Amino acid sequence: xxxxxxxxxxxxxxxxxxxxxxxxxxxxxxxxxxxxxxxxxxxxxxxxxxxxxxxxxxxxxxxxxxxxxxxxxxxxxxxxxxxxxxxxxxxxxxxxxxxxxxxxxxxxxxxxxxxxxxxxxxxxxxxxxxxxxxxxxxxxxxxxxxxxxxxxxxxxxxxxxxxxxxxxxxxxxxxxxxxxxxxxxxxxxxxxxxxxxxxxxxxxxxxxxxxxxxxxxxxxxxxxxxxx
Amino acid sequence: xxxxxxxxxxxxxxxxxxxxxxxxxxxxxxxxxxxxxxxxxxxxxxxxxxxxxxxxxxxxxxxxxxxxxxxxxxxxxxxxxxxxxxxxxxxxxxxxxxxxxxxxxxxxxxxxxxxxxxxxxxxxxxxxxxxxxxxxxxxxxxxxxxxxxxxxxxxxxxxxxxxxxxxxxxxxxxxxxxxxxxxxxxxxxxxxxxxxxxxxxxxxxxxxxxxxxxxxxxxxxxxxxxxxxxxxxxxxxx
Amino acid sequence: xxxxxxxxxxxxxxxxxxxxxxxxxxxxxxxxxxxxxxxxxxxxxxxxxxxxxxxxxx
Lengths: 228, 238, 58
Hints:
The complex is a heterotrimer.
Chain A (H helix, E strand, L loop, with lengths): L1 H23 L1 H21 L3 H33 L3 H6 L5 H29 L8 H26 L5 H12 L1 H15 L7 H27 L2
Chain B lengths: L19 H21 L13 H28 L2 H33 L7 H22 L3 H31 L12 H45 L2
Helix pairs in contact in B: 1-6, 2-3, 2-5, 2-6, 3-4, 3-5, 3-6, 4-5
Chain C lengths: L1 H9 L2 H36 L4 H4 L2
């Protein structure tokens, strides 16, 4: 079965990336530490009033996620470029999209682990009470993370091979993530409150639609981007 | 996925050239339509003469969106056909579009200060126009930071197309974000006395924009032709 | 004289002047940019493509 072979390729690339990461953990520790540091700095800048911090908690967590996450994406391609491994990777038989899917999967695991740490730190530092609707909240975070990782991985496949990649990736990525930021923060805030206006549902649908649209668009576009 | 033809041959020796008189004409027409609409439009009830800013602000906003649409069309066309010209048209439209986008934002602020009392509000249209500007800026930055011609063309086409897909989503999300919390700023319903002025100004600015994009494209073609000639000379002559 | 100034402020003419001023600065500024880039490209082309040299300088 062709799709089964493709799936094996995807998994192999993701596993390779994650194994490399697990052996050193340098990248992950740095990115997660940066995420928590951003949270602490935001707490210091916005605090010490408890109520104000609770109000700002959602925004702070998402900003820390975006700023720390953006470092993860360039890294995932840079590892290949530094050792000259991207060219051989492209030489392997099989469709190109599997490379993108593999990188995507690896980054998804990486960023999810980072977000778990950042969210936990945010709950503790900003004194957020966990609501009864927490499974939905986890779903919102997951949808936001997927949107972030899909576009982050796609743009990093270009920016990591350009000059000034540290500047270029946030410039390309952050404006594109405006709907994710608005959707994820508004839905999270609604769920942390009572969601009296029932607005969380609409935002969750928007996030899901966004993820789907850009998942398809980036898979189509990646074939053109990676061609060498 | 069809394999696009990216051969570098089969281009005319000298790119075509739009007459500079077209630019002179476009700019004179724009000056004339502005003079006409400023002098004929009556003072509006709420805003007084402030309404006259509309004749530059609204056409600039329309042309911004039109320019981004051109970027989308030619980016997709490039990804499909792989013709170098389409990439250069998209790049030219992006540069002119970003300029008009910046102008739209500044004009909006100049209008907002006396009309609303603030330079900026987080209204759906304003915010999405600002995000559009940032997407344009990213596109142009990508072009500036990538040296290889073909890589730049493919990457910027992908970024242009994907950025354009995002524009309606951004607009919708900002609109929801606003309306769920406070009423949106009421859009000025347009009195028929002003529609004529708005239309002719929009057409005049369209004329100017077409000239700018064409000229920018021709210059890019000329630069590219010179580069290819230099390469051919370096390879051919011993 | 003060009457005119008051009138200008009251009717927001200064903002209108600013709006049209900015518009023309941007349009003419972009035009200048195009003319200069065009001249540079023409000169390069004329230098690098011998046959077309005469046409470049206009």
